[in-house]
Design brief:
370 residues; 86% helix; globular; transport; transmembrane helix; AI-2E family transporter
Length: 370
């Protein structure tokens, strides 16, 4: 079969229907807008995600015959309360621990150097002085780069204080109106789409419940894992418990990789604070139990609909979408990969189903005329 014949077969299979072409154009335009205008639309996209998370609470209240506006106000006030608690309690605590960690870095660096010296003295045949010097030089370069990045970030952030204030004001306002006028906004968005949107409807129906389940479940997982990690670290007396707990909570965003990456700072802080003794081992065991319970108990409970994706597909999605959209790309990597998979499977089936419906309609008309 020639290349031309292969291309013609592919076009006939996927793009022979007008509705399929329209769906392709809508998807391309949507991705292009997010890629090129993502920074400009960041407050809107952030508010959209938060409203999507809160809509479940509004729906739960309205099912209990609570008036819609009252349900929106109750959920919105709860959201503002959580936001203020984070701003007044959690963020100052994390910032204080981060400053203390930066100030203690030289002492930790000296302790690490002493540990390497002891290691070389115990096992001179395995660790040479040259290797120790190379490791120390490499660690020094990494610490210097981290300090430079932190300094450049702090200097750059000085000019963005007004933008941050605007961001913090706009997002809650947008969230309120997205919850209050959801039906009106959805109706307006639907009115912009073509009338023939059966394929779009099928793809959206297949993805709506799964995306909602994933986003709300992932947000809940971050809160639960971070909270359990904080109390666990605090129980063992581990310093920087809040900072490490936030890191462990956010690590669930990146499947397979996040848990391994978060292990390094947890083990480093525990090792420098407790030494390589029993307490250090207890902290690592507790952290391993948290990760095991998260993967084997919490995830199956939160995500009622399993994401049927191969681990390689998930990692590729995290790398690609994370590289394109940063944090939000990592957060939505799995739903976006699931969307692409749904499109691949629903697209030809939708076209074939529409053709069968049209053929059946023509047969009925012919039978009526006969």
């Amino acid at each position: 079969m020639t290349l031309r014949a292969v291309l013609r077969s592919w076009v006939d299979h996927y793009l022979s229907d007008e509705e399929a072409v329209i769906l392709l154009v809508v998807l391309v335009l949507g991705f292009a807008v997010v890629i090129w205008l993502g920074k400009m639309l960041a407050p809107f996209l952030t508010a959209l995600v938060i409203a999507f998370l809160l809509q479940g609470g509004v729906n739960a209240l309205t099912r209990r015959r609570v008036p819609h506006f009252l349900a929106v106000m109750l959920v919105y006030l709860a959201f503002l309360g959580v936001l203020l608690a984070m701003a007044l309690i959690l963020l100052p605590l994390i910032w204080t621990q981060l400053v203390n960690l930066v100030q203690e870095t030289p002492r930790m660096f000296a302790s690490g150097q002493q540990l390497l010296d002891d290691l070389q003295a115990r096992y001179p045949q395995l660790v040479t002085p040259d290797q120790i010097q190379n490791w120390i030089a490499m660690a020094g370069r990494e610490v210097t780069q981290i300090g430079q990045r932190a300094l450049s970030l702090s200097l750059a952030s000085l000019g963005n204080i007004v933008g941050l204030i605007v961001y913090l004001v706009l997002v809650p306002i947008l969230v309120f109106f997205m919850l209050k006028d959801r039906d009106r906004l959805v109706g307006f968005a639907v009115s912009l789409l073509p009338r023939q949107r059966g394929l779009m409807t099928r793809v959206w129906q297949e993805m709506d419940a799964q995306i909602a389940n994933y986003v709300r479940g992932k947000a809940t997982e971050i809160v639960i894992v971070g909270t359990v990690a904080f109390f666990t670290f605090a129980f063992f007396g581990l310093p920087y418990s809040a900072l490490l707990a936030v890191l462990v909570g956010l690590s669930v965003l990146v499947p397979y990789i996040g848990a391994a990456v978060a292990t390094v700072p947890v083990a480093a802080v525990a090792g420098f604070h407790f030494g390589l003794g029993d307490q250090f081992l207890y902290v690592l065991i507790a952290y391993g139990v948290i990760q095991a319970l998260d993967g084997n108990v919490l995830v199956p409970v939160l995500f009622s609909e399993a994401v049927n994706l191969h681990p390689v597909s998930i990692i590729l999605a995290v790398l690609f979408f994370g590289g394109v959209w940063g944090f939000w790309g990592i957060f939505f990597a799995i739903p976006l990969a699931t969307l692409l998979k749904a499109l691949v499977y629903a697209w030809p089936r939708g076209i074939q189903q529409r053709r069968r419906e049209e053929a059946a309609h023509q047969d009925r008309e012919a039978a009526e005329e006969a």
